[in-house]
């Protein structure tokens, strides 16, 4: 069992910056890839960025050069620094973690409850 709690959402003007954090609860499961997804009204949930346990990163084309994902393994926390924000970035942002028991063949995804990010003109 893993619980993910997001923080840092809010309202910001276009061109501004915002930082998101997601902390995972203590667990016997090992946490591998962590990532951020977002869902805007009327749209499907989409990947924003993710990061592996070896710190390899992956970004959606729409946020490359503007967003930075990072993690602190000791704190089981993943961050998303968002710069040069655009109104199109407005969405609910969700944290996701892929976790697996040490002896298990497969793991599963765990999701946070989401945090609202609103970018105004």
Provide a concise account of the structure shown.
The chain contains no helices and eleven strands. It is mainly beta.
Secondary structure layout plus pairing:
Elements: E1 4-7, E2 10-13, E3 18-24, E4 30-39, E5 46-51, E6 57-59, E7 67-72, E8 77-82, E9 91-100, E10 108-111, E11 115-120
Parallel strand pairs: 2-11
Antiparallel strand pairs: 1-3, 3-8, 4-5, 4-9, 5-6, 7-8, 9-10, 9-11
Q: Would you mind describing this structure in some detail?
A:
The N and C termini lie far apart (40 Å). With 121 residues, this protein is mainly β. It has strands at residues 4-7, 10-13, 18-24, 30-39, 46-51, 57-59, 67-72, 77-82, 91-100, 108-111, 115-120. The chain contains no helices and eleven strands. The strands form two sheets. Strands 2, 4, 5, 6, 9, 10 and 11 form a seven-stranded mixed sheet that branches.
Features:
0% helix, mainly beta, 11 strands, 121 residues, 7-stranded mixed beta sheet, 4-stranded antiparallel beta sheet, single chain
Largest sheet: 7 strands, mixed
Count of distinct strands: 11
Determine Rg (CA atoms, Å). 14 Å
Order of helices and strands: EEEEEEEEEEE
Strand content: over 45%
Distance between the termini: 40 Å
Specify the overall morphology: elongated
Oligomer: single chain
Mean pLDDT across the residues is 96
How many DSSP H or I helices?
Answer: 0
Percentage of residues in helical conformation: under 10%
Low-confidence stretches: none
**Which class of secondary structure composition applies to the elements?**
mainly beta
């Amino acid at each position: 069992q893993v619980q993910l709690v997001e923080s840092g959402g809010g309202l910001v003007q276009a061109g501004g910056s915002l930082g998101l954090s997601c902390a995972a609860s203590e667990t016997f499961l090992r946490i591998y890839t962590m990532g951020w997804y977002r869902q805007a009204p009327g749209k499907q949930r989409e990947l924003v960025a993710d990061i592996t346990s070896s710190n390899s990163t992956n970004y959606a084309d729409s946020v490359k050069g503007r967003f930075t994902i990072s993690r602190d393994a000791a704190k089981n926390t993943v961050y998303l620094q968002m710069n040069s924000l655009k109104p199109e970035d407005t969405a609910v942002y969700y944290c996701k973690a892929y976790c697996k028991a040490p002896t298990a063949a497969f793991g599963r995804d765990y999701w946070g409850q989401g945090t609202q990010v609103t970018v105004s003109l």
